[in-house]
């Protein structure tokens, strides 16, 4: 597919607009949109203003691998809204630090908020029966999604107030038990660490804060959705499923 797109974008149809960058971008978008429609794909509309947001472009320029742009913007926007809300930020499952960089950018730099990153840096823990899909199989295996801790530290070295908490969830949660949180991002893919994260952080959320789950809408992560649905079924808050695959809970 990538080779096909590259070949099409080199056609005379595109080259005829080479003297006009604006028209060239429009031509590219129209061709890509046609390809996407034919293959039941979707691409971001060129007139969506979030794709040209200054803070978003600043964080994206760091080139860190990780979750898609639209999910990153959700985190950045929530972090911006949390600037005036008391409480630190926590992330459970950080991998290479891409989502963390967008939240840190959204906070504004410098910031009084601290970001605590909880990750084993040894990949996922062992899936359980709660992580099984309808066919009884689990998508993930122990050790999947491994990222070395030194890469995260390098990617986030320019930000202040970042604390990398290496260890299995929830082993190191007790070290922040005396803190409150305005934003918690949970991206651990599996039922038990998702539930452990909710049980610890929910009572420590400040009013007006948000809990975000990256995996809620993924068919490969049914355990994450089960954990959120079960945890909040007797709570006053509502789990809002986003078309990005995330869910958010306003506290």
Report on this structure.
The protein is 35% helix and 14% strand. The chain is α/β, with parallel strands linked by helices and 251 residues long. It folds into two domains: 2-38, no CATH class; 50-250, Vaccinia Virus protein VP39 (Rossmann fold), CATH 3.40.50.150. A seven-stranded mixed β-sheet has the order 3-2-1-4-5-7-6, sandwiched between helices. Helix 8 (191-201) links the parallel strand 4 and strand 5 (205-213). Helix 4 runs antiparallel to helix 6, helix 5 packs parallel to helix 6 (98-107) and helix 8 (191-201) runs parallel beside helix 9 (222-232). The longest helix is centred in the N-terminal third of the chain and has 18 residues, at 21-38. The radius of gyration is 20 Å and the shape is globular.
Under CATH, the topology of the largest domain can be stated as: Rossmann fold
Note the main sheet. 7 strands, mixed
Q: What's the CATH H-level homologous superfamily of the largest domain?
A: Vaccinia Virus protein VP39
Helix/strand-derived category reads alpha/beta
Strand order of the largest sheet: 3-2-1-4-5-7-6
**Total helix count?**
9
Annotated CATH architecture of the largest domain: 3-Layer(aba) Sandwich
The total strand number stands at 7
Q: Helical residue percent?
A: 25-40%
